[in-house]
Each structure stands twice: as C-alpha cells, then as structure tokens.
Amino acid sequence: MNKISFGTDGWRGIIARDFTFDNVRLVTGAVAAYINSKGLGERGLVVGRDNRFLAEEFAETVAEELNRQGISAFMCCGATPTPVTAYAIQLKKAAGAIMLTASHNPPVYNGFKFIPEYAGPALPHITKEIEENIRRLQKGDPCDMRGLIPPEGRYGLLVEETDAGACERSDFHPFEPYVKHISEVVDLEMIGKAALKVVIDPMYGAGIGYLEHILGQAGVQLEVFHNTRDPLFGGTLPEPSGKTLEELKNRVKAGGAHLGLALDGDADRFGIIDSNGEYITPNQFLPLLYYHLNTARGWRGPVARTVATTHLLDRMAVRYGQKVYESPVGFKYIGQNMLEKNCVLGGEESGGLSIRGHIPEKDGILAGLLAAEMVARHGKSLSGILEDIYREFGWLYSERLDLHTTPEQKQEILDRLNLWEPRELAGQEVARKITLDGIKLVLADGAWVLIRPSGTEPLFRIYVEANHMEQKSQLQQEVRELLKIQ
C-alpha cells in the first residue's frame, strides 16, 4: 500500500488501488481521533462528496466510521461542491467537514479533504497530526479513539437517493442556505438588469445546478451543457482550462453570449470564457476582480496571493496603498491570510479565489458570479476591462511550463539549483531571490521566474512573468539552458 499523505489539498489515490473502503475508513478514523483529541466530537462533522465512481458508498463509509467514534455525521444531500460543504460547517456549527473529491484530477482518482471548523483548507500542522494518527492506527495503536457505537439514529441524516435523484430521510441540504448567502455576496440585481446571456459548463461535476439556478433566478438568459452525472467526465479531465474548454468557447461565440462559465469536478476552481471566445486565465481574472472590488465596490484592503501568482496585483496594491501577502502554493495559506489579515481578495494562478465576507475556501461558483457582476457593472467585456487595467498599470505576460524529467535527472537538477545564483537573466539584474516555495528570482524591471520541483513526480514547474512576450520567451529559454531542462 502506498503511503497515505496529505498534499497541497488533501489525500488522493487511484480508486480500488489506493483509494479503497479500508483506507477511507482508516483516514476517517484518524480525523475522528484528531477531532476527539480537541474536544470537538460532540459538534459533529459535515460529510460531502462529488460525482465520482462509488461516491455515495465512500461517503456512507465515512459516516459509519465517524459514528463508530461517537461523532455525528451531517451527510449532505447528493453531490455537493467543496465550497458548499465548507459553508455547511457554519450552518451546523460543526467541528469541520470531510469532503470526498479528487477535484480536477482524472476519473480514476478520488480524494479526501479535511476542512476544519474555520471552513477553509486544513493547515500543515493539522494534516501532520492526522498523518501521525494514520501511522499509529496502521500499527494497531488505538490512537485515543473512543470506539463508541452511538445509539440508533446517531447519523440518521444518512441520505438515500431515489432513481430520480431526490434525497430522502434527510433534513440537511445546504443548497438553499448557500444560495441565500452567495446572493448577499454578489450583486444579482445588477446582473439581472444587464440582460446578460451566459453559457455554463459544470463539466459533469458537483457544481451542477448552482450557477444555473442563481443566474436563472436573476433573469439571465442561459445555455447549459455537461450538466448530468458522468463519473468519466465525458472522457476528459474535469479541469476548466484553455485546453479543455473548446466547446464552451465555440458555444459562447456561436450564441453571442457575454460569458462562458465553467467549474471543475468539485466546483472550487473556475474557468471563464470572454464574449470573444478567449480564455481568461486566473492570472488575468484576479487583477480584474481586485480592480472591480476597489473601483466599483469601493473596497480597500490587502490582497493575498501565492508565490506563483501574478505581480500585477502588487502594482495595483501599491496604487491603492495596500499590502500584498505572498504565500507558498496552496489555498490553505491564502485562507489563513484572509482570516488573519482581513484581505479583500485571495487567489492563486491555478484557479482558486475567495473574497472578504465569504468563507476562506476557494469557490468557483463565487468566481463565475463575480465575473457576471463585473460585466454587468462596467458595461463591457472582461477583455475590455483588462485593457483598461493594462493601460493604467502596465502589461504583464504570464505562463507556466511543466517539464518532465527522469528521477535521476531530477536529482541532478536539484543539485544544480542549490548552487544556482545568477546575477542576471534576460539582460536584467536579479534584484531578489525568494525561497518561500521553490526558487523565485525577481528581476530589476519586475519580471520574475519561479522554479518549483514536484514533491511526488520527476517534474519541474517553471513559472515566468515578463513585461513583453519576447522577454517571456527569453527567460524560459535561459532557465532551460542553465538547468539543462528541455
């Protein structure tokens, strides 16, 4: 059995090989031990799941094991997005949530996320304690677990689904409370008055029904597709990127829509297509949103971003007289800054964001609704607003390259990186070296390059942001040559 460990966003494994009922029960027991050790067991845990293969059965296994440890399980009715499961923690005043999802990964995977009581991703000190519980349980140590079998009905909120997909025997469905909350976070009245036309692609995932319900209630003209359950995700990845959203691009252009909105498998990440059919990257959307929050809503406050996310946010923050909090990759660090620093926006280049007044968990549904609010408020396309931003703050061009190596080559490159101290790159002096997560070199003119080795694969991720396309290409090539990565 492969070692069970929590990465940047939980434990993931291949179904039937690693992600088995026994292992799910084991990890649930470790979480239960953590909860009970903090004296929070009586508050119960929310249990959510996505649309993957055997999702219902895995969720029931989680609930049964929680009950065995004396912890109530608030089982969400049907497939539920990660941000909605996280929001349900607040509804139930629960000790946290367990979310079963592999997010945007291939259909052969499933995953296990623990979301603590603050409704954001678990920080490393929490997952470390859970991992230690897993090791002890594997060795036969009871791990201070109660081993109590609760009375009949302790998790009477276990859901059964009829053939029509309706939930029975459950009084807990966070859909409506979440919709009510999000309607207070986003200006749906403005969206409704703008007579928008929007195409939605939930990519067969847990986000089915959310954007279409909320925007439909606001009076938006909608076209929706890929909105039925398919554990194989139509034969592709449930990852809303420029490469996977070709059909959405075509439908937006063919239908003359203002926006195309997509969600990943558990609806915590977003994909946005502009009215011209162009994919708006997260590194473009985050500055768009920060600009909107400051200029249209009049919000003032710092912004949180990961080390791999655009510095256009930094330029804007300087103009607005605000701070930028840079963190390692992983939304858990963004969420921590949002909780502790009162940030108006937190985001990452991989497609996760949240804003002040919402939970400190990434939310693709929120992102899509805010995109519609921006188009309605500014009366122009996202590309048009972005042009205004570039004219005011300057152009920046970002790209990430994923470069594969052999395990032997990876170690050689790591050894070279330890000695890598260039004084200049692409004709620019290296002004700063940041080792927060990987190696990041910031140049005198504001361009930068970040090299991050994968923790699990023979893979290097190279992030570059430059002031013009030629500089971007030059930086990429020089890094490849210096490190002998091709």
TrEMBL record:
Pathway: Glycolipid metabolism; diglucosyl-diacylglycerol biosynthesis; Lipid metabolism. Its cofactor is Mg(2+). Residues 432-481 form the Alpha-D-phosphohexomutase C-terminal domain. It catalyses: alpha-D-glucose 1-phosphate = alpha-D-glucose 6-phosphate. InterPro entries: A-D-PHexomutase_a/b/a-I, A-D-PHexomutase_a/b/a-I/II/III, A-D-PHexomutase_a/b/a-II, A-D-PHexomutase_a/b/a-III, A-D-PHexomutase_C, A-D-PHexomutase_C_sf, A-D-PHexomutase_CS, Alpha-D-phosphohexomutase_SF. Transmembrane segments: none annotated. Its EC number is 5.4.2.2. GO terms for biological process: carbohydrate metabolic process; purine ribonucleoside salvage. The keyword Isomerase applies. Residues 4-138, 176-277, 282-392 form the Alpha-D-phosphohexomutase alpha/beta/alpha domain. The keyword Translocase does not apply. This is Phosphoglucomutase. It comes from Desulforamulus ruminis (strain ATCC 23193 / DSM 2154 / NCIMB 8452 / DL).
